[in-house]
Design brief:
With 162 residues, the protein is mostly helical. The protein is 43% helix and 10% strand. It has a 3-stranded mixed β-sheet with strand order 1-2-3.
Length: 162
């Protein structure tokens, strides 16, 4: 009955890329549990009256903070061995969008994407132009985004590419 009264739905994913079929069962289970935890958290936020934009931002922040996924902490490496991140958010009622790409030190790029949506006449800002709007957002060194798994994947790719 509860589900029939809801006027919202949630769909999330853990980032671009492929989860190898060789992933140990316990690692896959951890990822699935984390996704379920995020959905539960965001469901509670929506049920308590938070806006859809607030709930979406919170879901993405949780993904960005989870090293199991390819969003923020755990992002893949670029060809040169660093991280460049992006995020986008949209207001479904108005069609307004905000997006950021090629940022390398903003801990939660989704916060910056939302700021672009709400405070910029632009839809997409990149690199330094985007980071000018991020004075008070938390910054981290680029290697904060590293994980052993992503580093190993990059090293394997690099060895094949050389």
């Amino acid at each position: 009955m509860e589900a029939m009264r809801r006027k919202w739905a949630i769909a999330i994913h853990g980032g671009a890329g492929v989860i190898e079929r060789t992933l140990p069962t316990e690692s896959a289970a951890i990822r699935v549990q984390r996704l379920e935890d995020i959905i539960a958290s965001v469901s509670e936020a929506l049920a308590s009256g938070k806006s859809a934009l607030d709930a979406v931002e919170e879901a993405v922040i949780q993904l960005e903070e989870s090293p199991e996924f390819n969003a923020g902490k755990g992002a893949v490496f670029t060809a040169n061995g660093s991280h460049e991140l992006e995020a986008a958010i949209m207001n479904g009622h108005t069609g307004d969008c905000g997006a950021v790409c090629l940022v390398d030190s903003i801990r939660n790029p989704i916060r910056l994407a939302r700021r672009i949506l709400e405070q910029s006449p632009h839809v997409l800002l990149t690199a330094q132009a985007a980071q000018k709007l991020a004075d008070d957002l938390e910054r981290v060194p680029n290697d904060w985004f590293d994980t052993d798994l992503r580093k190993s994947q990059w090293e394997q790719w690099k060895a094949r590419a050389d």
